[in-house]
Every structure is written in C-alpha cells, then in structure tokens.
C-alpha cells in the first residue's frame, strides 16, 4: 500500500491562483505569431480556459471499496510494553482495513491548501482515481471502523468544499482574461506589421440615401488540444466592418417589414423577385457593390458584395420549408464563403404556417449543424446570430444572421 500523506498540504490557494493566471498569460505571449493570427481567437480563449481551469474533485461516496487483511503492528509505544521491552519494537498481529474512495476531477487538486484550512488535514494518498487510506488496530470493531471511515471522508469533503469556493473566481475569469491577452497581442502584431488598415472594409454610403426603410433608433477535466492552425504566414484579408454589416441587415429587415405590412403587393413574388427588391434597396444605400446571381466559389448566391476578389457579404433569400431545407441553405452559404470574417445572412419568409413554431425550430436547426461554433449576442425573437466555421478550415469563421419574417398570403376577395 502507498504511504499515507496529508492531503491539502501543498501550495496555498492564493499561490495557485496567481500561478495559473501567470502561466496562461505567459503561454499566450509566447505562441508563434502566425499561429496566433491564423487561429480563431474564440477557440484559443476556450483552449486556454480548459487548460488552466481547475476541476475540483468530486468523491463518489456511493462506491467506496473496503478490504481487510492481517498486518504486524508495532505496540512498543504501549506504556506496559515500554517498561517490558525498554522501547524496543514489538510486533503483534493486528488488522488493517484499506479504504478506497473513487473520485472524478483533477488529482493534483488534492495537494492545494484551500482557504480556510485547519492544522489537521486528512491523511490519505491518491492512487490513480481513488483516495486511499487505512485504519489499523489490534482490536478493531465494525462500529469504530465505520465511524473512522465517515470521519475521514467528511474531513476530505470539507476541504473540497472550501477549495471549490476558492476555484469559482479563477474559473469564471480565465476565458475573459485569455481573450483579452489574445486580442492585445494580435493587435500589437498587426500594428507592428503595419497592416491594420487592411483588415477593415468601409463602404462609402451614398449622400442623401433614401431613409424610407430606416427603422427608428430604439446584447473531469479532459486535456485540451491547441486549435489547429495553418503554418503559412498570416495575411490580412478584407473584411466588412460590423457597423456596415449591421446597417445592411437593417436595410433588409426594414424592407421585409414593408412586405409584412403589404402582403397583397408581394403575395405572388418568388425568391428571385424578392432578391431584386433587396438589391434595389441596398444599391440605393451603397454605390453599386451589391450584385445578383454572381458566380463564386462553388455556386451562385442571391446577394453578394465582394472586395479585392473576395466575398465579404453573402445573403440567401428563402421561403421556410422546414429544418432540413434550412440546413441545406447553410451548406449553400458555406460553399460560397471561402474567406475569413465573411458576414452572411439568411432571410427566411414564412407563409401560412405557424410562425411561432418556425421561430422555435430555427435555433435547434442551426446548433446541430456540424459547422456551428457558438451563439452570438444580438439575437431577438425573430433574429438569430451565430458564428460558423468554414468547412475547409475551422479557423476561418463567418458570421451568420438568420432574419425570419411572416409574410401571409392575403385573403381572397
């Protein structure tokens, strides 16, 4: 049997907290520059969170295993034996009860001294995924052994409870601290390469653009693996600014609101005609950069904006035909989206269906898609924002917004 040591008798919690944060920041500071720039910042932040978070063990007290065997026990410290044998070792046959308590979580956490702690921590050893301790004596009884087992387990649980309270602060802050450090280093690297300006694509809005459709101003631990990244030097690519993306979506959203308010004027239009209405509005706001039926990458798309030969905005207009068709539309968008930071949209029109049921179906259909990465802030009852990965490279991410609208067919006169 392994030698029993004191648990929770290693470094104190404050030292561990500082160490985890410093190690993470140091590792971010030393990642290869091209790898840092070629890897999704969100994925990197998640990786560092998973690597440096602490998973406090949970004891499985329902599956405690107990064994017993004979063991020579030194009774020389007994007062009578000390008089008889002058303190020399004297062994008699006794009993040793070995106790093993399974746990999940990080074994290393048993070394951390939580705050608060006592001067009498539990004595046990860690054997793989079990906490092991023993009870020995020459005249053991079942009740006494049971009380000692319960006392030791209770002591370990108390220490784990304190440690769990300590860990909450660290674990809740790691992802944010990692993302902040990643962004700071990325910005510094880009600035040093004097290419920051190449990352943004600001479209010039027409002077006096019509405001007809502008809405009024009214968000057990598995060892993590570093996200894969290409080894080629990072080259910034044109990207649509978030402000322009939001404005384009608002133009489209306001156009669909007109359709909702005037169903008789649009009840017979098909997807191609709908696209034309959007193109008229977009080109009224922007200087002819929106086109229709433009061939690109693996097929055609409804609405497309390109810069330097690369897609920076793509939208598809579809009538709702169920989750399966929505998944096919996502695949269609991903087929066109061959570049980093592409902003995309799916405009869904619902006709004569239960619109509440349609809205409830959209998030599930999006999240089960294999290229789905995460929800994004800014979703509303009928607008859903997500981040997806390019099928060829999960570090090439795109923004995908689903705009859903109810356009009922007008009642016949």
Molecular shape: elongated
Q: How many DSSP-defined strands? A: 13
SS element count, helices: 10
**Uncertain runs:** 210-222
Question: Measured on Cα atoms, how large is the radius of gyration?
Answer: 32 Å
Average predicted local confidence, pLDDT:
81
Number of domains: 2
Percent strand = 15-25%
Task: Give the SSE string.
Answer: EHHHEEHEEEHHHHEEEHEHEEE
**SSE-based structural type:** alpha+beta
Helix content: 25-40%
Strand order of the largest sheet: 7-8-9-10-13-12-11
Termini separation comes to 90 Å
Largest sheet: 7 strands, mixed
Characterization of this structure:
This protein starts with a strand and ends in a 7-residue tail after the last strand. Strands 7-8-9-10-13-12-11 form a seven-stranded mixed beta sheet, sandwiched between helices. Strands 1, 2, 3, 4, 5 and 6 form a six-stranded antiparallel beta sheet that branches. It folds into two domains: 184 residues, no CATH class; 165 residues, Restriction Endonuclease. The chain is elongated and about 105 Å long. The chain has 413 residues and is an alpha+beta fold. About 3% of the residues have low confidence. It contains ten helices and 13 strands.
